């Protein structure tokens, strides 16, 4: 029998609503994963580094320029009587942001290419500007559906969008058109997403398209979070920019492979956090805010049982993982990769979602400000004296500081007038302990396996299937060890997985 009490039915049903999004992202995760793996084999190291530099610029603008307006839909739509104004003004705002983004790419790419010592970036200035602008304009597509509780429709959109995106990025390179063909294809894809946003998002919503009063309220709510993103995204990407400016594109390709993350965090964390935000809004509206801490603990506990073993396996099987997915030429990226997997373990607690749902966006801004202040000196010292390893360690230390800053504000966000919470009240200690113990034990088994079979693995023939064999063996051993230890602690792993399946609203 599990040591933790059973969650209330309403809490279980709310978490189950994330099921369609989880399943959709599980399917598209394979497509997303295929992109860098295919490109690593068809592009040279220099072209691969250029690909990552192009999308580093685009994604930085993609997450900074929305200024929190799109994310504010999670707060306003569950509480709104008429949803059309919030949707309409959000899409108009993002269309304007897309125009700004396209202009910034076109004007600033030349100095950025000089900073990166990569003049080839200028060959892709026009398609990169078009792609970035249209992608920003389509940002509200999935969020507009999820924030209205239409998780099944959102899941369908995720499936279609990610499938088209993967095809646009991979197929042109396989046909021999290299990066130029890929950039043209993704620009067309972004245009289709932009059109779909206007067709899908407003369907069924009532009210005027724009309301000046509601827009001011929305901007006032979004401003702290938007300012936090303006700090957070550059801070999170700062190590990429600093390393790109310090090494050649080929070495930068190794660094990006070392920082590669499987999409498991986005697969589970993002939809769980999104549905949690909607649930907290519903509880507040119904006067049942005392149940909020239970919803947060349940979501965190479920994520712990997935993220902790995943991080432990990637750390233990890093050489097998890099060799199987990218090839032996990328094995120098293993030390960087082992540091970067810390980000998976740090994603257990959906703290930013709680703070946004409860209107504590200033706390998020403070966290990102602290991270930004810490990052600058860490990167200056780290990259200057320790190169690429200094870059990834600086990022990891800043992430730990930022998560700690968020954590101290979560209890106040979940407290009620009748009950004041502390940190020990909001963290699912039992689940964290059992998942951590099981993950460490299973990871130790993978290390023992490698030392016992190192000579045999080194003599395997070339080819993807042979390279994947050590990873598969390590994975099977890890899963058996993790499940066995977890079962010994009183947790039934299949029940944990079943709790994430789609269920009725209840």
How many DSSP E strands? 0
Order of helices and strands: HHHHHHHHHHHHHHHHHHHHHHH
Specify the number of helices: 23
β-strand percent reads: under 5%
Which class best fits the helix and strand makeup? mainly alpha
State the helical fraction: over 70%
Which word captures the global form?
Answer: globular
Uncertain segments are 1-15, 502-506
Mean pLDDT: 85
Number of domains: 2
**Distance between the amino and carboxyl termini:** 25 Å
Q: Radius of gyration in whole Å, from Cα?
A: 23 Å
How many strands, what sense, and barrel or not for the largest sheet?
none
Could you outline the blueprint of secondary structure elements for this entry?
Blueprint (H helix, E strand, L loop, with lengths): L8 H8 L2 H24 L2 H20 L8 H4 L7 H32 L9 H13 L2 H7 L4 H24 L3 H23 L11 H35 L2 H10 L5 H22 L6 H25 L1 H9 L7 H7 L1 H4 L5 H7 L3 H47 L2 H5 L8 H4 L2 H30 L5 H25 L4 H6 L8
What does this structure look like?
The radius of gyration is 23 Å and the shape is globular. It is built from 23 helices and no strands. It folds into two domains: 16-239, no CATH class; 260-500, no CATH class. The protein is mainly α and 506 residues long. The chain has helices at 9-16, 19-42, 45-64, 73-76, 84-115, 125-137, 140-146, 151-174, 178-200, 212-246, 249-258, 264-285, 292-316, 318-326, 334-340, 342-345, 351-357, 361-407, 410-414, 423-426, 429-458, 464-488, 493-498. This is Membrane protein involved in the export of O-antigen and teichoic acid. It is found in: Cell membrane. Keywords: Cell membrane, Membrane, Transmembrane, Transmembrane helix. The chain crosses the membrane at residues 21-39, 51-77, 89-108, 128-145, 166-192, 238-255, 303-326, 332-351, 363-386, 465-485. It is a multi-pass membrane protein.
């Amino acid at each position: 029998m599990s040591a933790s009490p059973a969650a209330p039915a309403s809490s279980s049903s709310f978490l189950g609503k994330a099921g369609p999004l989880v399943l959709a992202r599980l399917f598209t995760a394979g497509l997303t994963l295929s992109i860098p793996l295919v490109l690593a084999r068809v592009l040279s190291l220099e072209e691969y580094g250029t690909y990552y530099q192009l999308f580093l610029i685009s994604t930085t603008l993609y997450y900074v320029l929305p200024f929190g307006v799109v994310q504010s839909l999670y707060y306003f739509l569950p509480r709104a009587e008429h949803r059309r104004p919030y949707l309409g003004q959000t899409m108009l705002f993002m269309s304007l942001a897309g125009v700004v983004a396209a202009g910034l790419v076109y004007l600033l790419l030349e100095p950025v290419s000089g900073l990166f010592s990569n003049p080839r970036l200028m060959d892709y200035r026009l398609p990169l500007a078009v792609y970035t602008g249209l992608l920003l304009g389509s940002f509200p597509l999935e969020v507009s559906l999820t924030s209205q509780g239409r998780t099944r429709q959102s899941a369908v959109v995720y499936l279609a969008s990610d499938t088209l995106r993967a095809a646009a990025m991979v197929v042109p390179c396989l046909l021999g058109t290299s990066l130029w063909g890929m950039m043209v294809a993704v620009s067309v894809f972004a245009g289709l997403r932009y059109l779909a946003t206007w067709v899908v998002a407003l369907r069924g919503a009532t009210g005027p398209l724009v309301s000046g009063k509601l827009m001011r309220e929305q901007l006032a709510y979004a401003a702290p979070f938007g300012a936090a993103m303006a700090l957070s995204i550059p801070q999170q990407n700062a190590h990429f920019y600093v390393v790109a400016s310090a090494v050649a594109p080929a070495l930068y390709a190794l660094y990006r492979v070392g920082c590669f993350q499987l999409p498991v965090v986005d697969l589970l964390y993002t939809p769980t956090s999104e549905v949690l935000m909607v649930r907290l809004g519903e509880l507040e509206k119904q006067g049942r805010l005392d149940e909020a801490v239970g919803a947060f603990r349940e979501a965190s506990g479920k994520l712990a049982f997935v993220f902790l073993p995943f991080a432990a396996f990637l750390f233990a099987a890093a050489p097998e993982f890099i060799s199987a997915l990218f090839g032996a030429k990328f094995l120098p990226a293993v030390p960087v990769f082992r540091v970067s997997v810390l980000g998976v373990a740090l994603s257990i607690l959906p703290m930013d979602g709680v703070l946004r749902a409860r209107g504590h966006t200033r706390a998020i801004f403070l966290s990102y400000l602290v991270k930004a202040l810490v990052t600058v000196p860490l990167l200056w010292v780290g990259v200057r004296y320790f190169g690429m390893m200094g870059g990834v360690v600086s990022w990891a230390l800043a992430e730990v500081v930022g998560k700690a800053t968020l954590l101290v504000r979560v209890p106040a966000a979940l407290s009620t007038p009748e009950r004041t919470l502390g940190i020990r009240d909001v963290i699912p200690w039992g689940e964290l302990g059992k998942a951590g113990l099981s993950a460490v034990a299973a990871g130790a088994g993978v290390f023992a396996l490698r030392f016992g079979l190192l000579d045999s693995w080194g003599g395997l023939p070339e080819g993807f299937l042979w390279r994947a064999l050590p990873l598969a063996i390590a994975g099977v051993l890890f899963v058996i060890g993790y499940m066995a230890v977890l079962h010994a602690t009183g947790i039934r792993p299949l029940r944990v997985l079943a709790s994430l399946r789609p269920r009725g609203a209840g």
